[in-house]
């Protein structure tokens, strides 16, 4: 009986000490980063391009990453939305055409194949650092997750990387070849954008106002046994856009 009383007294005395030493784990909060992150997936087309610039529909695509900041205009339904990000474009050529330099001339032609060498895939990759700017109208600006929105604006981009990627089979082995060149591409591009959507989902389009290649510096292509340079042509992209809030 005495042992039970002593143990009870000890438990009563030391229980506050144990309770003071017990600390609750602090839960880490997710960083509150202002602005919105935007992911865009689109398919590329070339308006006014010659028939020889025949690109694969599904292989010619764009992947964009942007950070944007919404600035509401007074208490209206309109916002001014600047941003910054990357635009990663792919142009996949059909008919075994490869973009290459030969004798200081840019060519888009089909290289000769032999029984041991077969071309499997040919792409032109262009990567841009871009600044998008939009004016956005929302039906419910205080509840953007459930709001219908329409946006118009533009982008200015700087080409920071360009290369071709060729996949071919040689001696029964699949090989890849990468060539970093300027390829007479315009270093600066600018165009118009538009999007329509609800909440964080929308459909977008982008149209380049200047040509993919520098003026009168596009690739020479074979046509009827002669080499001709295609006229200057513009590109555009249509796709879907996902954004965070």
Characterization of the model:
- There is one protein chain.
- With 245 residues, this protein is mainly β.
- The protein has one domain (34-243).
- The protein has one helix and 14 strands.
- The strands form two sheets. The chain has an eight-stranded antiparallel β-barrel. Strands 5-6-12-13 form a four-stranded mixed β-sheet, with no helix packed on it.
- A hairpin with a 2-residue loop joins β10 and β11.
- The longest helix is centred in the N-terminal third of the chain and has 20 residues, at 2-21.
- The radius of gyration is 29 Å and the shape is elongated.
- It starts with a helix and ends with a strand.
- It comes from Pseudochryseolinea flava.
- Residues 1-19 form the signal peptide.
- This is Outer membrane protein beta-barrel domain-containing protein.
Helix amount:
under 10%
Number of strands: 14
Low-confidence stretches: 1-28
- Any idea what the radius of gyration is? 29 Å
Structural class: mainly beta
- What is the subunit arrangement here? single chain
Order of helix and strand elements from N to C terminus = HEEEEEEEEEEEEEE
Strand content: over 45%
Taken together, the total number of domains comes to 1
- Please give the count of helices: 1
* Dominant shape: elongated
First and last CA, distance: 66 Å
Instruction: Give the overall pLDDT as a whole number.
Output: 82
Strand order of the largest sheet: 1-2-4-7-8-10-11-14
| Biggest sheet record | 8 strands, antiparallel, barrel
Signal peptide: 1-19
Keywords: Signal
Pfam family, one: OMP_b-brl_2
Organism: Pseudochryseolinea flava
